[in-house]
Structures are given as structure tokens and as C-alpha cells.
Design goal:
One of its GO terms (molecular function) is four-way junction DNA binding. By secondary structure, this protein is α/β, with parallel strands linked by helices. 43% of the residues lie in helices and 8% in strands.
């Protein structure tokens, strides 16, 4: 059976004999008979390649070329050669060969779209062999019969010098081996080739160089000061200088009146050391003679009490000192009582200075302290604890007018700014709470008076809702920028409808909204030397600073809600304690800390059956619906309270705690106080 058809007519005819073909190289590069392959560096290879390109350009008609053009031409040629060799190596490695064969070069020609016929023209190049095939440099070989001397290693391998140099070694000990056996020889350090390590080492060297330069500059500046250059005086030096001038003036005044005990004392300058020691003696003498207030003592103390401040700070201090005390800060009576207790633990009629008494020592004027600002924090340790509904009630009481058609609404008649950091502030629920509060307080003074119409209620509700401004920052920088721009926004009469009203309350819905984000940024940031540079601490410090600026400028109450991370601890007499997780800068800024929670409803008994549970379902549901919420003072940091706060809380009913109920209509506060 035949595998394929034969091209011959018969099977007995023998095929024609194949002719032998001999292959050989037509051009050979002239090489010396005896040579060793020289070691060429990169510069030599580049120069040879540039020379070859120059010969090729001259052969095709170019007389010259710019160095930049030649360098670009050489770089393109090198890139093309590298790509071609890479294709050859890829074909070689894919066939698991260690050396390239002609098939690898054919595959590389195919990938570069080159045919064998296109290479025939390069077999007879237009450049003469003398120019295209230069002789390679070869090392000089010694002539025949010439003796070659190599360096001797005898001094290194000989151990006899060691025996003579070590006289403490006994002579019967064997000789020491060569030094090369127990001493290390110099070894060349390998050059680092890892780019990452090279960059790290360069960065470290740059940092060290910068530190050395800073030390050098600091040494030069200190040396300049030692050489007589004037240095900038500090605040303490200026105060000391002013005090010396004042004492010298008082001394000159006393000298004119004949009260100077030593006529040799120079008050016009000269020896300033005597001036600094003289006033104490003068004051003691005049105090013994007059037994009363001396001009020198009074002037000295008045100068020490002088304080520099800006005009806005002065006006703010005057407003805090002379403004009447507000008995209602939030429009919620039990919360207002707690806030006033923490703000003013002592009576306001306490004098801010000591009355003068001639029998006592000279009184020292004490300026009145700036009162604390109302900052309230409402914390809950469990979800659905009622703190957000308490915020709705505070916002509604802040925007309600004080009266309407001779009816007292007991509102604050202000504006409210809400920073909704967690995007959960419900405007519909706020409208329901405001409507419920408005309906409960719109009670006519007499039964014969007409009640407000639904249109009047709707108009009053609409006007009140226009006084609430809600902002939703999405990041810590956005929150800081929003708080910083609040004064500019609220003082613009064309931006909103609240320009006639003051800012009453600033509400932050969740202090912990960006807590973990800032904590993650702080953990990912490199370890810093100073704790103040920590992004976590820096963010909260900036937030407190911005809130404090807004409060001092607009005189508002700050109410912030927070989600507690620690368990609720019950103490004696119904007191509660929750460990704060906010940084200390916020804890110092906060005035009143409250904890809210839900009252516990008794569960089903352990032995109740399913039928009994179904039978008591309606009663149980009614008990859950009537269950209220409680709000108490957080006693965690009670040791840092002002004197009189803890005693004041004990005088309040239930220690200042109050209850509130939440229903579908609104929020109802139980005030027993």
C-alpha cells in the first residue's frame, strides 16, 4: 500500500542524484593571527557604533551631522538592536536552548517583518573593507625566549617574621602559619545595583547633609551674636526693661521730694544695677512711714496687670462681663438648669476685687475671669437611645418665636445651624416635632379667645423652618472649612432669611463621624516626634478652635451628639458614668456632658408559655409604647468640676435627671422641677 502517489511513471526508475552545495562566507573581517579578546567598555562600544553610523551616512550622501542628531540616531539604533536580540533570545528560551541557532534568527527576522532577500544588498556594502572592518586592538604578547617575571607571594606566605615579632611565644612552640591563614585581606566592596536601595541611600545622605547644613548655619548665627550682632529682645526682656524705666522714674520723683536716702544714687542712667536694688529699700521705708498705699507700689502693681488685647477681644470681654445672665439657653427648662449650674456654680454677686483696707496689706486687683461658654455633649451607648430626637426638640425650641398674638411660646427666636456629619438628620421628623411643640404651646390666654387658624399655623411653621440651616460636610477638611465660613455666611443678609435673628444653637449631629478616618490617617502617617503634629490630635484641635471662634463671635450654644464606645456604668443614687473616647482638647472645651438612654421594660418570665405570651401581647406592646427615655449627667470626670457643681446637683430633683417620651406626633419633655 502506497503512502503517497509517485511522480515518476515507473517504480523501477531511480531518482536523479542531488547536487551538493557548499556554503561559505564571502567577506571575512581581518583579524591578527594571535590575539586575545580585548575588554571593551561602554564608551568604546558607543564610539565604534557612532563611527559606523557616520560611515553609513557619508556613503548615502551626507557631509555632516549635528552631535545631537548623531546621539539620537545612535540611541535609536541601539534600541532596534536590543529589540532584535530580545526576539532571538525569546525564541531560544522557548525551545529550551542555551545557545542561539539560525532558526532563532529567522524567527526574529519574521517578527521584525524582514525577509532574507532584503539582506542580500548588505553583502556588498558601498564602504570599503579598510574602513568598515578596522583591526581590533590586541594586547602585546611577550616575544619568544623572553623571561616573564611574576610577583612573589613569599613575604605574605612566610611565617618566620611572626615568630620574631612575637617574643612572648615560647620557642618550643611550633611555627605560626602564614598571615593569610588567620588575617583577613582587603576585599573590594560590591557596588549596589538595586535602584530602590540606591534611592534610599541617596535620601538618607541628603537628610544627613541637610542636618549638617542646619547645624552649620546655627553655629554661624550663634557666632554672629557673640561677635556683637544685635539680637532680638524677648517679651520678658521688654517687660524687665519697662519695669526698670518705671522704677527709675519713681526714684527720680522721690529724689525731688527729698525721700532718697543715698545722694550718690544715679537715676539718670549709668549704673543700672543699683537702680534694680534701690526700689525695695525705698518702698519699705515709705511703707513704714505712710502705713498705707504708696504710689510706687500701686504703680508697680498696675503695670504688672496691664494686658494687651485686640479691640474685638475687649468688646467680647465687656459683653461677657456686663451682659445679663441668661436663665434660658436652649428653651428646655431641665437642660437649662443643668447648664446654668455648670456655667455659674457660684453666685454672680461675688465681688471681682478685694475692698481696700488700710490695716491690711495693699490689695491686688484681680480682673474678672471670662465666663465659660455653653457647650453640651449628649452621648448614648446604645442605638435608638433618643439623642437625635432630643436634638430635634432643641432645634425646634431655638427657632420658635417668643410670642405669637399675645401668646407666650417660650421660644428663643433665633437661628440654628446643623452640621449633619453622618447624613441622618431627618427634616420631615424635625417638622413633625416643631409642629407638635407649636401646637402644645399655642394655648389662648382666655377660653373666649380665638385659636390660631390652620393657615396661621402653617405660616408660622414655615417661617420657623426657614431659620434652620443644614450643612452636610463629607470629610474632616470640609467640616473645618464649613465651620470657618459660618460667620461670613450668617452675616450676609442676601444669603438667607435669618439675618435679623442671632445664631442661637449650633448642632453637630455626630462627633465620631470622622473619628476612625482621622485615626487611620494618623496610623498611616510616619511616626512624628511631637504629639501635637499627630493628624488625629491636630484635627480635633482645629475643630475645637474653629467652634470656639464661631461661639465667641456669634455667642451661640453648641450642642454635639456623640456615640459612646464604652459600657454604661451605674453608680450610687442613680448616677451614670461613661468613659469618653474623644481627645482631651474636646473634653476641656465641653461644659456639660449628658448621657441618654431608654428605660428598661420588664421581659417575659422564664416560665411563661407561648399562649400566655400571645394573650399578654397587647399589654406588653402598650408598656413598650409608654416606655420613656432618660437623660442624666455624666459623672466620669466629676473630680475636675468646679467647686459647688456636685453640691448643686444634689439639691436638684433626681440629681438633675429628666425623662422624655417619643411618639409619632413629636417629643414630650417631663419637667418636674
Amino acid at each position: 500500500m502506497l503512502k503517497r502517489s509517485s511522480s515518476t511513471a515507473g517504480f523501477d526508475v531511480s531518482p536523479s542524484k542531488k547536487q551538493l552545495r557548499h556554503h561559505g562566507l564571502k567577506w571575512r573581517q581581518g583579524l591578527p593571527d594571535q590575539f586575545e579578546p580585548p575588554l571593551h567598555d561602554g564608551e568604546a562600544v558607543h564610539s565604534l557604533l557612532t563611527r559606523a553610523l557616520g560611515l553609513a551616512l557619508k556613503a548615502v550622501g551626507f557631509d555632516g551631522a549635528e552631535p545631537v542628531a548623531m546621539e539620537s540616531f545612535r540611541a535609536l539604533t541601539e534600541e532596534y538592536m536590543v529589540n532584535f536580540v530580545t526576539s532571538v533570545r525569546k525564541s531560544m528560551l522557548s525551545s529550551r536552548r542555551t545557545q542561539a541557532i539560525p532558526q532563532d534568527y529567522l524567527q526574529a527576522l519574521y517578527e521584525h517583518q524582514l525577509t532574507l532577500s532584503s539582506l542580500i544588498l548588505h553583502l556588498d556594502p558601498p564602504v570599503s573593507p579598510e574602513k568598515s572592518q578596522p583591526l581590533l586592538a590586541s594586547e602585546s604578547t611577550p616575544e619568544a625566549g623572553q623571561i616573564v617575571f611574576f610577583p612573589s607571594f613569599t613575604p605574605i606566605l612566610d611565617s618566620k617574621p611572626n615568630c620574631h615579632s612575637s617574643a612572648y611565644i615560647p620557642r618550643h612552640f611550633p611555627a605560626l602559619p602564614g598571615e593569610h591563614t588567620f588575617r583577613t585581606t582587603w576585599d573590594a566592596v560590591n557596588r549596589e545595583k538595586d535602584p530602590r536601595k540606591i534611592r534610599e541611600r541617596a535620601t538618607e545622605e541628603g537628610r544627613l547633609g541637610e542636618e549638617a547644613l542646619r547645624r552649620l548655619v546655627g553655629t554661624g548665627s550663634r557666632q554672629g551674636k557673640k561677635d556683637g550682632e544685635p539680637k532680638r529682645q524677648s517679651a520678658a526682656d521688654l517687660r524687665k526693661r519697662r519695669k526698670e524705666l518705671w522704677e527709675s522714674t519713681m526714684d527720680a520723683l522721690a529724689e525731688e521730694t527729698g525721700g532718697v536716702p543715698d545722694s550718690s544714687h544715679d537715676t539718670n542712667g549709668g549704673n543700672m544695677d543699683n537702680v534694680s536694688t534701690f526700689p525695695s529699700t525705698l518702698l519699705k521705708k515709705q511703707r513704714r512711714e505712710n502705713n498705707g498705699m504708696s504710689a510706687v507700689t500701686l504703680g508697680e502693681r498696675l503695670l504688672t496687670e496691664v494686658k494687651e488685647e485686640r479691640l474685638d477681644e475687649l468688646l467680647r470681654s465687656l459683653r461677657d462681663v456686663h451682659s445679663p445672665q441668661k436663665t434660658s439657653q436652649l428653651g428646655l427648662p431641665p437642660l437649662d438648669r443643668l447648664l446654668n449650674l455648670f456655667l455659674h456654680p457660684r453666685p454672680r454677686d461675688t465681688p471681682s476685687y478685694t475692698q481696700f483696707d488700710s490695716t491690711q496689706s495693699h490689695p491686688r486687683f484681680e480682673p474678672p475671669k471670662r465666663p465659660k461658654q455653653p457647650v453640651v455633649e449628649i452621648t448614648s451607648t446604645a442605638p435608638c437611645a433618643g439623642k437625635r430626637h432630643l436634638l430635634y426638640y432643641i432645634a425646634a425650641a431655638s427657632v420658635l418665636p417668643r410670642s405669637y398674638d399675645s401668646i407666650l411660646l417660650q421660644g428663643q427666636e433665633g437661628a440654628v445651624v446643623v452640621l449633619d456629619t453622618d447624613n441622618q438628620f431627618d427634616v420631615i421628623r424635625l417638622r413633625d416635632v416643631l409642629s407638635s411643640l407649636l401646637t402644645s404651646r399655642l394655648k389662648p390666654l382666655s377660653p373666649h379667645a380665638a385659636a390660631p387658624s390652620p393657615s396661621d399655623l402653617s405660616s408660622l411653621l414655615h417661617d420657623s423652618l426657614q431659620q434652620i440651616h443644614i450643612f452636610r460636610p463629607q470629610s474632616p477638611p470640609s467640616l473645618l472649612s464649613t465651620v470657618h465660613s459660618l460667620p461670613t455666611y450668617l452675616m450676609d443678609p442676601t444669603a438667607h432669611y435669618s439675618s435679623p435673628r442671632p445664631l442661637q444653637t449650633l448642632i453637630v449631629t455626630n462627633l465620631s463621624a470622622f473619628l476612625w478616618q482621622t485615626q487611620l490617617e494618623s496610623d498611616e502617617a510616619p511616626r512624628l516626634e511631637h504629639q501635637n503634629a499627630n493628624p488625629f490630635i491636630q484635627y480635633h484641635r482645629s475643630m475645637v478652635q474653629e467652634l470656639s471662634n464661631v461661639q465667641q463671635t456669634l455667642g451661640c450654644v453648641i450642642v454635639a451628639a456623640n456615640q459612646g464606645l464604652s459600657a454604661l456604668q451605674w453608680m450610687r443614687k442613680g448616677e451614670v458614668s461613661v468613659k469618653p473616647h474623644m481627645p482631651g482638647v474636646w473634653n476641656d472645651f465641653c461644659t456639660l456632658k449628658l448621657v441618654v438612654g431608654r428605660e428598661v421594660v420588664r421581659k417575659f418570665g422564664p416560665g411563661i408559655s407561648a399562649d400566655e405570651a400571645i394573650h399578654e401581647r397587647e399589654q406588653r406592646q402598650k408598656a413598650v409604647a409608654e416606655c420613656g427615655f432618660w437623660c442624666r449627667v455624666n459623672w466620669w470626670d466629676s473630680g475636675e468640676w468646679d467647686a459647688g457643681v456636685a453640691e448643686g446637683l444634689q439639691t436638684l430633683d433626681r440629681g438633675g435627671a429628666f425623662s422624655f417620651h417619643i411618639s409619632g406626633m413629636g417629643v414630650r419633655i417631663e419637667d418636674v422641677g
